[in-house]
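The instructor's notes for this session suggest beginning with a concrete chain rather than abstract definitions. Hand out the sequence below and ask the class to guess, before any prediction is shown, which regions might be ordered.
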Amino acid sequence: MHPMLKPALRRAWRGRNTVQFGVTPAHAVTLGPMDIATGSFLELLDGTRGLPLLREEARALDLSDRHVDILVSRLAEAGLLDDPGAGGAEAEALRRRAETLERQRPDAASLSVVHPAPGGGLRTLAARRSMRVQVRGAGRVGAMIAAVLSSSGVGRVDVLDGGRTEPSDVAPGGLPAESVGERRDTAARQLVRRSAVGRPPRSDGPGGSPAGGEPALSLIVVAPRDGLAVHAPDPDIAAPWIASGTPHLYAGVVEATGVVGPLVLPGGTGCAGCLALHRAERDPQWPRMLAQWRSGRRTAVQACDLGLATAVSGLAAAHALSFLDGELPASTGTRWEAAMPMLDWRSARLGPHLDCACGAAGHTEGELTSATGSPQDTMAG
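After discussion, reveal the predicted structure:
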């Protein structure tokens, strides 16, 4: 091991004998008591020295071998240490891709804070390369989500949509102006390819199919151009995903309101069918109105503010990446909404419905609450 203090965490002295690593409350750690000699020793933890050399140089500071071992152990337990050579074979393969890694250093630094084990950040970043995500929709929201996921190292991002790119689809970070008139799926594939970081590895081993085959879907992001399909998702469309156990996340903008979530874990959280049943119970007229909205004449232009679409895309992509990296983001079984002009993000938990065929009712309610934070109001509208 070649211990290295995580470069992503800024360091400052809190008084004379306590050091704080990190700025924000979510990840900051304080360590003390610490004398001046030990503080000087911290400068040696830069990943260029193994423990034998660290002990030797510490003696020049009048620090014992035992003191060094205890300090390194405390730093490791606090998640403050990294190791330039840790992370396993996949991380080492990524290190050999110098150009790719240079572009993703900010991502690796962020993940090193979130995943505290030495090499954990790079191991997580490397794991994304074997994953496959499908984005359903290539409008202002969907195309941008696809680009962010591809640029964040997800190995394969498929985008499904029909028709041809219109001027209203164009957005910074999404479909460019030169794609107007092209097939949306073609333009989206080109966008994903331009955004990609290096070439993904061949699928072979856990989580994928044999080499030359198609890797299994890790996640579906539902981001249709018509935001009504996110505000009131169709249970029939989601039924195959429920049956196959495929996680899916909804994101979009409808009438100047941004929506992110829920992230549906089939059999574990509320789904589109649960939402429809809850709404029908609370508002008997809801099914009647929804049928009119779905079948009536659609407006020529969707009310989709570019700034709000960008915010929704970024938040949805971040939630998707958190899930792909092995965490349960706050959108798990929960929907987040922000309406213009105040843009105050509010959350509503989507509880499973007893009459829904998804089977999530009563499954892991307590576990979900503890994983996603404090209990929230059940979604009603």
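Then share the key points. Confidence is low (pLDDT under 50) at residues 202-211, 364-381. The longest helix spans residues 306-324.
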